[in-house]
Design brief:
The chain has helices at about 20-25, 40-45, 50-65, 70-85, 95-105, 110-120, 120-125, 140-150, 155-165, 170-190. By secondary structure, the protein is mostly helical. The longest helix is centred in the last third of the chain and has 20 residues, at about 170-190.
Length: about 200
């Protein structure tokens, strides 16, 4: 997969360990623009490997930090990962990291953002665990929410949810905690790379 980055003139200040801490990003939503993926940069031939590294470093730092991040920030991060994965071939662990940060809020309406991420490409369909879709309360609550919605993707998502193995809210909670623990453990091991989850 190609690496992408923020052009140097817009890059954020870099601390000694080359990783911007979660608190720095949370202080000011205007800083989020530094993590925004723009396909136009790549099409113009601008160097984007720094953007890719910056956003990977932010995801890794957030996964290693206990507790949920700001909900709007989590949605923003997943939206950028989804855009990136629609534009580029391959699968990066950062999209699952962003999805996990969003699922920690356990909001049923986030199912649409998770569905967009899963359906962004063939690689995200194969790489992202589809159980993430049940983060809003397990199978029963998630299906009830989708049935009651007027979303244009309701029938597509509903059909897919009905094909997934049933899971209670407690089972989903345990699954999300296990995936976050997995990423945190891998990121603490030098020289290792996170692997996609299973369905």
């Amino acid at each position: 997969m190609r690496e992408i980055a923020i052009p140097d003139e817009t890059a954020a200040p870099t601390p000694k360990d080359d990783t911007l801490g979660p608190a720095w990003w949370a202080e000011d939503p205007e800083r989020w623009d530094l993590l925004q993926f723009e396909a136009a940069h790549d099409e113009a031939g601008l160097p984007l490997d720094r953007w890719w590294k910056d956003r990977r470093d932010v995801m890794d730092a957030l996964i290693l930090t206990p507790g949920p991040v700001d909900h709007d920030f989590a949605r923003f991060l997943l939206a950028q990962e989804t855009r990136f994965h629609r534009h580029c071939w391959g699968f990066s662990h950062t999209i699952e990291a962003a999805a996990l940060l969003l699922t920690e809020h356990r909001r049923p309406d986030d199912v649409w953002h998770l569905w967009q991420a899963i359906t962004a490409s063939f690689d995200t369909w194969c790489g992202l665990p589809h159980r993430l879709l049940l983060a809003g309360g397990g199978t029963t609550r998630t299906i009830a929410y989708v049935v009651g919605s007027g979303h244009e993707q309701r029938d597509n998502l509903l059909g897919h949810l009905q094909e997934l193995p049933k899971a209670t809210d407690d089972e989903v909670t345990a699954f999300l905690a296990e995936r976050r623990r997995y990423y945190a453990d891998v990121l603490r091991e030098p020289g290792t790379t996170p692997e996609p989850g299973d369905d």
